Amino acid sequence: MIEIGKMQKLQLVRKTKMGAYLNYINAQDRDDILLPKNEVPQEFEIGDEIEVFVYKDSEDKTIASVKKPKLTIGELGLLRVVETTNFGAFLDWGLQKDLLLPLRDQVGKVAKGDLCLVGLYINNSNKICATMYIYDLLSTESPYKQNDRVCGTVYSINKDIGIFVAVDNKYHGLVHNNELYGNYAVGDNIEVRVKRVRDDGKLELSLRKEAYHEIESDAQKIMARLRLSGGTLLINDNSFPDHIKEELNISKRAFKRAIGRLLKEGAIKITEEGIEMMWQ
User: pTM of the full predicted structure?
Assistant: First the structure.
């Protein structure tokens, strides 16, 4: 059976003024599909095979194309929005007919010119559509291990959990809230560290570097803020985590590690109100 949304090899079974009609070799059904005349190779004869992509055109007819789109069924990728309407957005996927991203399949606000990370599915009318809900389309078989640096696209945000990232736009990844610093939006491309590879293959990610690198970086950040504030900061071990994050954009745990390092080096001292720089 001819499959919509996939590249496949079909045989030329007859020619007409409109083009070439294709089907599988020795197909039992006669639901031949048209390869339009302007795409038929010059020396294409009855019985010859050709690889084509099958989809429905603007007139809702199933046709073939020798052009391979930027995405086929089962693949994920970034596609550009070329038009928005009150029922969805249209994406450029390399074919004459643009690809519909229905309104119900959009995550966040989609505007003309945006790059959207999408997968494909076939709707109830047998038409190919795009969706930004890609969780079930991602793979758990990544080649990465703990502490690898990877890149990915933010495809969903849950305020109670964290941000979901499609690593390499194909693998499951999640940055938990306690590893999340800064503001991010769906569609952002970020570089992260693999904190852990779960037993199910999904990747737990962190925006922070390994701990020993982070101590150095956080310690420098604290010293810079101390200099700017005249040598004192009204933050210490008793401060609330939200207050520390607001002031320094680091977690309380990272703050405690960094000031421990600075205390050991004699760079600061702890007071009842906060921390104070030890001037040389």
Answer: 0.70
